[in-house]
Specification:
By secondary structure, the protein is α+β, with helices and mostly antiparallel strands. Helices cover about 50% and strands about 15% of the residues.
Length: about 375
């Protein structure tokens, strides 16, 4: 074993003892104190990896006279207590390097040993540089968008309406403004320019767009596409607006007009105004969700453009029925299918048809109509006022 090139990959304790010019007992003592690296246990045998052993010897060797002249360690009191280690290294190319650190030990002798050990490791790192790792290519926002939609929105089984909203925001707002930028090049200034671009949009709309961008960049960090976000995204302040809803007289007029016009319109007004159901929840309502004996509705699904998913918030809820709502449901009981509401053609009612029926009823009653949500707001106000 005079030449290190002839060393076996795994060495026995006797071979290590001969190589280190020591005894087998001393080798086992170093193993028990975890002082020697590369220990491999195979059954009851203890073997040593020669590569790790050679590296350990190189790290712990005494510096050569040339290296000794090129390195120096100075210990001086640290201004806030403890010891400062000042390391200076001059490489063969005459380049000078310096490090000053506070030693993590309390005594001067320990600080000297810590500094000398750090000096050896630093000299080795400077004279044996690691090969530069190839930088991975960072995709642009347009390139990453399909992966974000598939790996986040669809993989987490978000509602079809939520996925469609993200697709629209990416296509209409984010792609034109930031689509050609790499994800790690989207800066805080770019975000501010996006806000200026969206100046005519409502603050809530701008916040929805910024939230999608923020989630997309956070997923890129989580999936190791980029190391960190290069921007900070701050949402706009949203002023609280007054909620528009029907008063008791307007709602009474709307109920009378809807009843005179169409049994479906009458049922829609009561489901939204008396029970507080949303448009998609009324479209997806099935007879199995209705308990006429307990006068109770189980709201457990919502429809959106033909897709049926869980209601907003992802949780079902139980809603009490008024006497007139229960009577209206009994009166319109049918055998067309599981759904409660159908069109004249026999197909299930759509959200667009719901809005059309409520708009016609509002016009007939002579009251304003801003969509089914006005009826939900009335239902909430009726609940609060008792």
């Amino acid at each position: 074993m005079s030449s290190t090139a002839n060393l076996p990959i795994l060495m026995t304790a006797d071979e290590v003892a001969t190589f280190l010019r020591t005894t087998r007992i001393a080798v086992y003592a170093m193993v028990s104190r975890a002082q020697v690296p590369g220990v491999t246990r195979i059954g009851r045998r203890i073997l040593f990896r020669s590569e790790d052993l050679l590296h350990w010897l190189d790290q712990n060797r005494a510096p050569s006279p040339k290296e000794e002249a090129a390195m120096s360690v100075t210990i001086r009191p640290y201004r806030r207590g403890g010891w400062e280690v000042d390391i200076r290294i001059t490489l063969p190319d005459d380049s000078e390097h310096r490090q000053r650190r506070k030693a993590p030990v309390s005594s001067k002798s320990a600080a000297q040993r810590w500094g000398e050990d750090r000096e050896r490791n630093w000299y080795h790192d400077l004279t044996h540089p690691q090969p530069a790792t190839e930088q991975k290519e960072v995709p642009t926002l347009n390139e990453f968008a399909p992966r974000f939609l598939d790996g986040h929105a669809r993989a987490n089984r978000q509602k079809p309406s939520g996925i469609a909203a993200k697709e629209m925001i990416l296509r209409v707002h984010l792609a034109p403004a930031l689509g050609q930028k790499r994800l790690d090049a989207i800066t805080s200034e770019d975000v501010q320019r996006l806000k200026v671009r969206l100046a005519e949009k409502a603050a809530k709309t701008v916040n929805n767009i910024l939230t999608v961008l923020n989630t997309l960049l956070k997923k890129a960090v989580e999936w190791d596409v980029i190391s960190r976000m290069a921007c900070s995204i701050r949402l706009l302040a949203v002023a609280k607006m007054a909620t528009r809803f029907y008063d008791f007289e307007e709602y009474a007029l709307l109920v009378v007009a809807a009843k005179a016009m169409d049994e479906r319109a009458y049922l829609l007004v009561l489901l939204s105004g008396d029970a507080g159901l949303r448009s998609g929840e009324m479209v997806a309502l099935e007879w199995g969700d209705i308990d006429l004996t307990k006068r109770q509705i189980c709201v457990q699904r919502s429809a959106w453009k033909g897709h049926v998913a869980s209601p907003k918030g992802g949780r079902l809820r139980y809603v009490p029925m008024t006497i007139r709502l229960a009577a209206a449901l009994r009166a319109c009981r049918h055998l067309r299918g599981a759904r409660v509401l159908y069109q004249d053609s026999g197909k299930p009612l759509t959200e667009k048809a719901v809005q059309s029926l409520l708009l016609r009823a509002a016009r007939r009653a002579g009251v304003s109509n801003n969509g089914p949500h006005m009826l939900r707001h009335y239902s909430a106000s009726r609940t609060i006022t008792g």
